[in-house]
Design a protein that fits this description.
The longest helix is centred in the middle third of the chain and has 53 residues. By secondary structure, the protein is mainly alpha-helical. The protein contains one helix and no strands.
Length: 55
């Protein structure tokens, strides 16, 4: 009885560890993608503004 309860707790701990690690990885990738998109938008805006000033 003690062994099966211990095994359930170990499996639950590993499941939660995997779930939390996956969530952190997801948030990291989303933040990286958003930062890259903001930098590209900023570069486009500066290029557009530079062209309108020259005209």
């Amino acid at each position: 009885m003690e062994t099966s309860a211990f095994n359930v707790l170990v499996l639950a701990a590993f499941g939660l560890l995997i779930l939390v690690s996956g969530g952190i990885a997801y948030l990291t990738v989303i933040e990286w993608r958003d930062r890259r998109r903001r930098e590209n938008d900023r570069k486009q805006q500066s290029t557009i503004r530079g062209k309108t000033r020259r005209s």
